Amino acid sequence: MKKEWQVPEYEKIEFKKKTCKYCLVIPVINEGNKFINQLKKLKPYAKLADIIVADGGSTDGSTDLGELKRLGVTTLLVKTGPGRLGAQYRMAYAWALKRGYQGVVQMDGNGKDSPESIRRFINLLDQGFDYIQGSRYAKGGWAINTPLEREMANRYLFTPILCMAAGKIYTDTSNGHRAYSRKLLLDPGLKLFRDVFSNYEILFYVTARANRLGLRSTEIPVTRSYPPAGETPTKIVGWKKKFDVLGMAIKAAIGYYNPRD
């Protein structure tokens, strides 16, 4: 880990040694049975990527050490320093680079993402792509029970804003199911290890900037499934948070987070 990197303090629990070329990063905080069920679905894919759980400080028992070990998790990282989702990602990326992984695939920990696309993400990393965006709207993808409000925001706000900034067409820029190469994580034009990336900023920033830096990018179809009824699995609750997240996307698009040196 480089001294100039800004990475939150964290604790690590290693259940087993590195066995794969790539790792699967799953950020979580109090996801309950949704997360446990997701890990069960991931077991058939354990030989493709080591599972790194980036916990933001769960207190609901869903990161029980015995259960995580039984379900094939390689490493649990528990953030103890400040920051939210972006800090969890920086923690996980730093750990992945330190352990020598050649890239990361990432998916949410609330059960919305289907694991079937992991193999295709890895194949494209092997082909030299640096940023692979998962899209429920690409041909072959599935958007299941997406709330109308979120559907409209994805298609008519976030995607046009970030595609214009990127100079490239993507169809699902708010989707966290994606993959990054080691080259991208270390790119000096990105400088991902900065405290300014505390929340969702880091996702929008990579989308807006990667193609402009000459990093190879593409998108693949994925499935993102919301429950047919009940509470929507999300941390973005209330209009203030929703406008805050939109503001992060706009800032990423206009270069607010770009390195100044």
Distance between the termini: 20 Å
Chain-averaged pLDDT: 94
Describe the largest sheet: 8 strands, mixed
The domain tally reads 1
The top level CATH class name: Alpha Beta
Helix content: 25-40%
CATH homologous superfamily classification: Spore Coat Polysaccharide Biosynthesis Protein SpsA, Chain A
Number of extended strands: 10
Walk across the major sheet and give the strand order.
1-4-3-2-5-8-6-9
At CATH level 2, the architecture is Alpha-Beta Complex
CATH topology: Spore Coat Polysaccharide Biosynthesis Protein SpsA, Chain A
Return the structural class.
alpha/beta
Low-confidence stretches: none
| Cα shape | globular
| Radius of gyration of CA atoms, rounded to a whole number | 17 Å
Strand content: 15-25%
Helical element count?
8
String of helices and strands: EEHEHEHEHEEHEHHEEH
Describe this structure in words.
This protein is α/β, with parallel strands linked by helices. The chain has one domain: Alpha-Beta Complex (Spore Coat Polysaccharide Biosynthesis Protein SpsA, Chain A), CATH 3.90.550. Helices cover 34% and strands 18% of the residues. It has 8 helices and 10 strands. Strands 1-4-3-2-5-8-6-9 form an 8-stranded mixed β-sheet, with helices on both faces. Strands 7-10 form a two-stranded parallel ribbon. Helix 2 (65-70) links the parallel strand 3 (50-55) and strand 4. The longest helix has 19 residues, at 148-166. It is globular and about 45 Å long. The protein starts with 9 loop residues before the first strand and ends in an 8-residue tail after the last helix. The model has no long low-confidence stretch (mean pLDDT 94).
